[in-house]
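The methods section describes the discrete structure representation at length, but only in general terms. An entry of this sort, consisting of the sequence and the corresponding backbone structure tokens, reads as follows:
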Amino acid sequence: MNSLSILEPATDEACCAPAGTPALGAEEAKQKALVFKALADPNRLRLLSIVKGADGGESCVCDLTEPLDLGQPTVSHHLRILADAGLLHREKRGTWAYYSLVPGALDQTAALLASL
């Protein structure tokens, strides 16, 4: 066998057979991308960590500004993105909003990668 035979295309037709699993649909990809975009920011990862570790499993937005050294409008913006991605639940109590993890959201996020 000479070295050129390594560069020759394979003639086995099985190597070009279409995959049995359908490709990710446009809408499903859009929804999954929302989650990954939400997680792509270090401040949002920290917010998830803080909320997850909070006593009672929830945190007031007023308690989340100091640990991140960010203003309340910026923290609220990040929390909204996490809520829109389906990772956090928001509950309004008086003038404050309280955030908690959506049950199963982190497990579903981990499963997103496994399903690709």
